[in-house]
Amino acid sequence: MCETMSSYEEEREKMASIAMQIVIHAGDARNLIMEALDHAAEGLYDQAEDKLKEAREELRQAHIFQTEVVQSEAGGKKYEYSLLFTHAQDTVMTICTEMNLAKKIISMYRKLDDRISKLEEKAEV
């Protein structure tokens, strides 16, 4: 006797897979954001910007998976509540906030470095 997954089980598996992809991409974005902040703290702004660019791409990938589910539900498809998908959405939103804060922090680092450099130049005169 060959057992097959019911369509309900297949949908749950698909939703779990999508949710995990969202979490993975968002988690990778978080790691890249932290690397960007580390670079900025060292004054390595080009490297920081490169890491933020990579993080944006990871968030874009997470968003693609999220949008697939949201658009199909908006089109009438019914999904059972998924704690894992809810966690995935929460993770994406949190990391988007971290991205916004990281951009602001890096900008502040740059401005502080510029001000310090100008003060040091004045002190040398």
UniProtKB/TrEMBL annotation:
Binds 1 Mg(2+) ion per trimer. GO terms for biological process: phosphoenolpyruvate-dependent sugar phosphotransferase system. Mg(2+) binds at D90. The modification Phosphohistidine is found at H87. GO terms for molecular function: metal ion binding; transferase activity. Pfam families: PTS_IIA. Residues 38-65 form a coiled coil. InterPro entries: PTS_IIA_lac/cel (IPR003188), PTS_IIA_lac/cel_sf (IPR036542). Keywords: Coiled coil, Magnesium, Metal-binding, Phosphotransferase system, Sugar transport, Transferase, Transport. The active site is at H87. Its cofactor is Mg(2+). PANTHER family: PTS SYSTEM N,N'-DIACETYLCHITOBIOSE-SPECIFIC EIIA COMPONENT. This is PTS lactose/cellobiose transporter subunit IIA. The lineage of its organism: Bacteria, Bacillati, Bacillota, Clostridia, Lachnospirales.
